[in-house]
């Protein structure tokens, strides 16, 4: 965890800063994931070095075990050879010398026995440790590879989600504009209808006024026909002037 924080912030941190780190991870998951991947890579590198060291230890232990086994086998063969010589020797002096040599080599073999067991066990332990580290290294490598693949997939999913979000926002904006246009169109329709209604009302009033004017205005026959005109004047209490003398008398009467 400390290495993760170092990768993410570049400094050691305490528990108070840990909260800020967690907030940063939530705010920038991509960078946090990259930091975690670097931590995994460092762990993998450390395991790789440990594997190399364990392999060197195992090689050394195995060489030592092989060497002592080889020496033991040579001494065993030598002891068996001395024993056969001793059994076939008839000279007492020679028998004594062979017996002493055989006793020496057998003692050496007896002293080597625990050494051979220990060296063999050390080699086995070193091999088991090496195999464990190699398995851990392989597992860590697989996890790192899988984590990178997941990061790539997550980045692709984030990009796709971002595109979908932008498309949804554009669609929402288009819907808002369409709604505004519909509202404006509706307002125009109301205004247009009001104007049409007003024009129709004014037209109707004009037609009514014209009809009334026609009704109140004397027609052509009433003005052109002297008899009808005289009759209309008489009906209204105003005698009609039918001649110049009559018209002149009317003027004098007014004066």
What does the model show?
- It is a single chain.
- With 255 residues, this protein is mainly α.
- It contains 7 helices and no strands.
What is the gyration radius calculated from CA atoms?
Answer: 62 Å
- What is the helix fraction of residues, given as a range? over 70%
- N/C terminus separation: 130 Å
> Biggest sheet: strands, sense, closure?
none
- Helix/strand structural class: mainly alpha
- Count of runs of 4 or more consecutive helical residues: 7
Q: Determine the mean pLDDT.
A: 75
Listing every helix as H and every strand as E from the N terminus to the C terminus, the arrangement reads HHHHHHH
| Count of DSSP strands | 0
Note the beta-strand portion. Answer: under 5%
Task: Give start-end ranges of low-pLDDT stretches.
Answer: none
* Global outline: rod-shaped
Topology record:
Elements: H1 2-9, H2 15-27, H3 29-88, H4 92-216, H5 220-224, H6 226-235, H7 244-254
Helix pairs in contact: 1-3, 2-3, 3-4
Labels describing this entry:
255 residues, mainly alpha, 0% strand
Brief synopsis:
The chain is mostly helical. It has helices spanning 2-9, 15-27, 29-88, 92-216, 220-224, 226-235, 244-254.
């Amino acid at each position: 965890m400390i290495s993760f924080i170092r990768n993410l912030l570049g400094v050691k941190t305490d528990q108070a800063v840990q909260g800020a780190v967690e907030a940063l991870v939530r705010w920038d998951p991509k960078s946090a994931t990259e930091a975690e991947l670097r931590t995994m890579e460092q762990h993998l590198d450390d395991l790789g070095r440990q594997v190399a060291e364990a392999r060197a230890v195992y090689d050394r232990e195995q060489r030592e075990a092989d060497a002592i086994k080889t020496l033991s086998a040579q001494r065993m063969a030598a002891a068996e050879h001395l024993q056969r010589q001793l059994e076939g020797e008839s000279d007492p002096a020679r028998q004594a010398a062979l017996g002493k040599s055989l006793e020496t080599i057998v003692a050496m073999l007896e002293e080597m026995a625990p050494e051979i067991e220990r060296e063999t066990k050390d080699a086995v332990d070193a091999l088991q440790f090496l195999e464990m580290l190699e398995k851990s290294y392989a597992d860590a490598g697989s996890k790192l590879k899988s984590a990178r693949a997941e990061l790539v997939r997550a980045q692709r999913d984030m990009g796709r989600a971002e595109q979908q979000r932008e498309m949804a926002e554009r669609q929402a904006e288009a819907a808002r504009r369409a709604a505004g246009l519909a509202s404006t169109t509706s307002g125009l329709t109301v205004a247009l209808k009001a104007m049409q209604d007003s024009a129709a009302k004014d037209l109707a009033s004009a037609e009514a006024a014209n009809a009334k004017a026609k009704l109140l205005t004397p027609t052509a026959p009433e003005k052109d026909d002297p008899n009808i005109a005289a009759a209309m004047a008489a009906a209204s209490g105003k005698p009609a002037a039918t001649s110049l003398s009559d018209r002149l008398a009317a003027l004098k009467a007014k004066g």
